[in-house]
């Protein structure tokens, strides 16, 4: 597999290090290394938007499972799942992960507003 470069924004670029095709579940599992030297860790929305442009996938079928950033390094490892259809995404992903990626997660213990 050739190396796929990802450009999230002007300050964030990366490389798809691993791409596995899980045909049983109907998804691709990616490990992406993002370089954001001198900038903050990109948000889940920024990562999803950037990956959808590079990989020609719909944004509602990409899930950011995990972002690991070493303190002060400006490098993050991101685990991403990319589904073939929306039904399988809802079947296999946790609701709190989907809410977190969509930005609709409610905070615990407080009243809204």
Automatic annotation (TrEMBL):
Q: Mark the transmembrane ranges.
A: none
Tell me which UniProt keywords the record has, alphabetically.
Ribonucleoprotein, Ribosomal protein
Q: Which GO terms describe its biological process?
A: translation
Query: Which terms does the record give in the GO molecular function aspect?
Result: structural constituent of ribosome
Q: Which Pfam families would you find in this protein's record? A: Ribosomal_S24e
Q: Can you tell which superkingdom this protein's organism belongs to?
A: Archaea
Q: Which Gene3D superfamilies match?
A: 3.30.70.330
What is any one of the record's Gene Ontology cellular component terms? ribosome
* Family statement: Belongs to the eukaryotic ribosomal protein eS24 family.
* Cited PANTHER family: 40S RIBOSOMAL PROTEIN S24
What is the official name of this protein in its record?
A: Small ribosomal subunit protein eS24
Protein species of origin: Sulfodiicoccus acidiphilus
Record lineage: Archaea, Thermoproteota, Thermoprotei, Sulfolobales, Sulfolobaceae
